[in-house]
């Protein structure tokens, strides 16, 4: 039986050149569909990886109760003072390791599209910088407090116009000097501008209030102590969440949204490719009808006609899938882009393809090949054998 | 050789249903052909010659009646059993050769052997033997495109005999060939009948071709109207 199937497959594959353009068109459409799906998957994956790679579980993020993001949170000087006495917070030379931060939105222009976008400007202290793992100044130097100086994240610099080192940007009525470029190892923070807290409070008329407070915990488990403290202190109305969980939550909605857009689009396009595949394979069965009938007259089974036809379809879909994956790999993998993160500001991330995603692309391609070959294969299996005797 | 004929048709009817009406091709047809015979079947176009070959080759089924070939009832066989039966009992020779254009002559001839348990080496030997019988051993590596119609038909004959079936069914085997080439093909068939004992049924329009057979059946309006034996 295997010999039969192999030789029928061989014969149908060998006859492919007779349907060269139709077959190439099918391969191409399947490739496009797979490439589009992989682009969406890689985008979702890259976004999620960037956000999930941000934040540590021994840093607590404290926001105004009910505020889901830093942007719509506000904490007063009094709140900060109470938090400095809270349980579970690590100390440095007797001082609690705590960082009040402002997070304001400024304008920027996306390099690739020229569109105006919202970018985050964060005011923070050296304590806050230290809480973000290893931060390196790759060019220039750190800002000096009180001088309206900015450092720019590496990713933001790459993706948006006007933040070159040693240039000046104007936010509102104030000019800011860009004195350095910082890197945080590919985390979301690289999509931010940083300056000193007091300067930002001053220029953006925030008085002594902050939007979030970060606290270094004595251990990841100590977050429970901090939560208990915050709940039981009548002066505080705050939510406490680990920094890691915060970014995880932020990533979920956007990466889900990308998938929710991507899969239906890929499936809709996949249906188009399926129609093309069906047409191609039906054409192939029609063209090979006499050959198939002749083989059946010789004694080949209808099953071999079925699998011989299916194999042609699968061959086209495998080629299409490989081509699509190759295109996605060479054009999308590692491609840097930005999109709206959970905080209404841009997050820079790069497309990331991986084995698991390629498997999904392969499933889509093979699905098209299987369904696109199945029905023509049934027709091939049911061809009347007497057709071998019919006229040309 | 046993007395029972190789082919026996008893009360075979065949009708095609077209739209609402039924077109009867054969009605209560009886026929027996003994092993080793070479029969030419003649008759006007549409008289059912090809239909008869299809029934005998297990490629089509009768509406009623029984068909017994080589002691086996083929009218009631399952599809897959019929496939296997065809593989070792019948060899088909078609008017338009029906070779696979992308396979070499040898590969075409090998096709029926892929259904057997023969090893690759044995298959190659049998293929070369069959090609030698039809005088084409030097064309094994050629593709059908590189061969004349007569040569292609000889490759098709080699394919039909390579698995050594008892029965050869030929539908206008010389219908597409000039007279001289047709003569060569018919001589080859005659030789297969005479030297290898193949039972041959050959549909033809051409009275000259029919003369190569041992007997001629005239099919008309669903009946054999006469049975002539040539000299
Ligand atoms: N599948 C089919 N469905 C309906 N009618 C059919 C079918 N096959 C054959 N017929 C009809 O049966 C009749 C006999 O056909 P057949 O092909 O056996 O004739 P034939 O004697 O071989 O003719 P020719 O000499 O032209 O080859 C014809 O009228 C044909 O139209
Ligand atoms: Mg006919």
UniProtKB/TrEMBL annotation, chain A:
Its main location: membrane. Residues 23-228 form the MacB-like periplasmic core domain. InterPro entries: ABC3_permease_C, MacB_PCD, Macrolide_Exporter_MacB. Residues 266-384 form the ABC3 transporter permease C-terminal domain. The chain crosses the membrane at residues 20-43, 257-282, 303-331, 351-375. It is a multi-pass membrane protein. Keywords: Cell membrane, Membrane, Transmembrane, Transmembrane helix. It is found in: Cell membrane. This is Membrane protein. It comes from Iodidimonas muriae.
UniProtKB/TrEMBL annotation, chain B:
It comes from the Bacteria. Keywords: ATP-binding, Nucleotide-binding, Transport. PROSITE patterns: ABC_TRANSPORTER_1, ABC_TRANSPORTER_2. Residues 7-231 form the ABC transporter domain. Gene3D superfamilies: P-loop containing nucleotide triphosphate hydrolases. The keyword Nucleotide-binding applies. One of its GO terms (molecular function) is ATP binding. This is ABC transporter ATP-binding protein.
């Amino acid at each position: 039986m295997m010999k039969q199937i192999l030789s029928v497959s061989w014969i149908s594959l060998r006859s492919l050149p007779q349907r060269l353009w139709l077959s190439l068109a099918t391969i191409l459409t399947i490739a496009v569909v797979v490439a589009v799906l992989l682009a969406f998957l890689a985008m979702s994956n890259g976004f999620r990886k960037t956000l999930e790679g941000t934040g540590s579980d021994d840093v607590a993020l404290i926001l105004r109760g009910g505020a889901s993001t830093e942007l719509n949170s506000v904490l007063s000087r009094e709140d900060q003072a109470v938090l400095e006495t809270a349980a579970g917070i690590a100390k440095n030379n007797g001082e609690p390791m705590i960082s009040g931060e402002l997070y304001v939105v400024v304008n920027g222009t996306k390099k690739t599209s020229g569109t105006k976008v919202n970018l985050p400007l964060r005011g923070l202290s050296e304590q806050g910088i230290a809480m973000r793992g290893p931060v390196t100044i790759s060019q220039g130097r750190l800002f000096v407090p009180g001088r309206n100086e900015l450092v720019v994240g590496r990713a933001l610099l790459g993706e948006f116009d006007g933040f070159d080192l040693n240039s000046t940007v104007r936010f509102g009525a104030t000019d800011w000097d860009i004195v350095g470029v910082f890197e945080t190892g590919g985390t979301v923070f690289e999509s931010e501008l940083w300056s000193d807290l007091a300067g930002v409070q001053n220029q953006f008329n925030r008085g002594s209030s902050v939007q979030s407070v970060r606290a270094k915990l004595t251990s990841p488990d100590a977050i429970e102590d901090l939560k208990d403290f915050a709940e039981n202190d009548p002066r505080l109305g705050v939510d406490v969440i680990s920094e890691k969980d915060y970014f995880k939550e932020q990533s979920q909605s956007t990466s889900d949204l990308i998938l929710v857009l991507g899969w239906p689009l890929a499936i809709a396009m996949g249906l188009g490719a399926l129609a093309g595949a069906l047409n191609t394979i039906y054409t192939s069965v029609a063209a090979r009808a006499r050959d198939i009938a002749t083989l059946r007259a010789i004694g080949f089974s209808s099953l071999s006609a079925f699998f011989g036809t299916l194999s042609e379809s699968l061959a086209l879909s495998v080629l299409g899938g490989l081509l699509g994956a190759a295109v996605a790999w060479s054009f999308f993998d590692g491609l840097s882009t930005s999109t709206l993160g959970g905080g209404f500001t841009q997050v820079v991330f790069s497309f990331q393809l991986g084995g698991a995603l390629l498997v999904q692309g392969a499933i889509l391609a093979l699905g098209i090949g299987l369904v696109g070959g199945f029905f023509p294969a049934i027709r091939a299996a049911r061809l009347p054998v007497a057709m071998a005797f019919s006229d040309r | 050789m046993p007395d029972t004929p190789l082919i026996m048709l008893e009360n075979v009817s065949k009708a095609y249903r077209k739209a609402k009406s039924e077109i009867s091709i054969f009605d209560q047809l009886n026929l027996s052909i003994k092993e080793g015979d070479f029969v030419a079947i003649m008759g006007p176009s549409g008289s059912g010659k090809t239909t008869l070959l299809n029934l005998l080759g297990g490629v089509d089924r009768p509406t009623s009646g029984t068909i017994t070939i080589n002691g086996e009832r083929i009218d009631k066989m399952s599809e897959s059993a019929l496939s296997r039966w065809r593989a070792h009992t019948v060899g088909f020779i078609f008017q338009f050769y029906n070779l696979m254009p992308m396979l070499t002559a040898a590969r075409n001839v090998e096709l029926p052997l892929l259904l057997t348990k023969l090893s690759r080496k044995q298959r190659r030997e049998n293929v070369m033997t069959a090609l030698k019988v039809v005088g084409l051993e030097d064309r094994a590596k050629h593709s059908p495109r590189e061969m004349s119609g007569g040569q292609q038909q000889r490759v098709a004959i080699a394919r039909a005999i390579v698995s050594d079936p008892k029965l050869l069914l030929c539908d206008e085997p010389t219908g597409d060939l000039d007279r001289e080439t047709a003569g060569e093909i018919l001589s080859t068939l005659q030789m297969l009948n005479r030297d290898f004992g193949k039972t041959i049924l050959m549909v033809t329009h051409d009275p000259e071709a029919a003369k190569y057979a041992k007997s001629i059946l005239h099919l008309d309006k669903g009946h054999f109207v006469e049975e002539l034996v040539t000299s």
